[in-house]
Design goal:
Length: 224
């Protein structure tokens, strides 16, 4: 089994059955769909098969880890058009293109648009499995980052309006005395709010607090 695929299937990355990575195969050739279904299932991956991008986009499927293996050409459609449609449909699964008719300009455009790989038939099974492993890991990282950001936003929501003011001034580099002057409170009060901010944001120091604020997109306040 591909080392990339093995990594993507590690237990800590898929604790529950519903979190098992799924490879979505979109190809209008039934024999290709069957062959890929057998290949991916042989290494323990779940597979979903679709005969067209429209069929995939219209399907009611749960949000789960995975990637898409997509043929480049369908009747009257280009692979890049489908790539844009899938992205526009808020389906951020990584895409691997497979084709028997690809060219260099097409592959360059696909990769620039975010494709993980562009494989021209005939390709080795191992090359496809390696690409799938990379795509699954990419999706795992994205999902982990989304979870961390969601947790961080939840922490931020626990801050009071005054604590958010203090946070904004702290990450702007203000000293406690300066913050007290700007807010019209005592320095002791600023210190109390600052401790609460650190506790609620679960920051161990100023540097980490600044990094967390940056992840939340919090900018320093403008000064006159």
């Amino acid at each position: 089994m591909s080392s990339h695929v093995m990594a993507a299937l590690r237990p800590e990355m898929a604790m529950a059955t519903q979190e098992q990575p799924t490879v979505v195969v979109i190809d209008d050739d039934a024999s290709v769909r069957k062959a890929l279904d057998n290949l991916f299932r042989s290494v323990g991956l779940a597979v979903e098969l679709f005969g067209s991008p429209q069929e995939f986009l219209q399907s009611e499927r749960p949000d789960r880890p995975g990637c898409i293996v997509l043929d480049v050409r369908f009747p009257g459609r280009s692979g890049l058009d489908m790539q844009r449609e899938i992205s526009a449909a808020n389906t951020p699964l990584p895409i691997i293109f497979i084709t028997g008719y690809g060219d260099i300009p097409m592959s360059v455009r696909a990769m620039k648009a975010g494709a993980v790989e562009f494989l021209t038939k005939p390709f080795r099974d191992q090359d496809l499995l390696d690409a799938v492993g990379v795509a699954l890991e990419k999706d795992r990282v994205r999902r982990a980052n989304e979870v961390r950001l969601s947790e961080l936003r939840t922490r931020f929501q626990t801050l009071t309006a005054r604590e958010r003011q203090v946070l904004s001034l702290v990450i702007a580099g203000r000293l406690n005395k300066q913050i007290a002057g700007e807010l019209g409170v005592s320095e002791m009060t600023v210190k109390m709010h600052r401790r609460q901010v650190m506790r609620k944001m679960q920051a161990t120091g100023l540097a980490q607090l600044v990094r967390l604020a940056d992840q939340l997109g919090l900018g320093a306040p403008h000064t006159a």
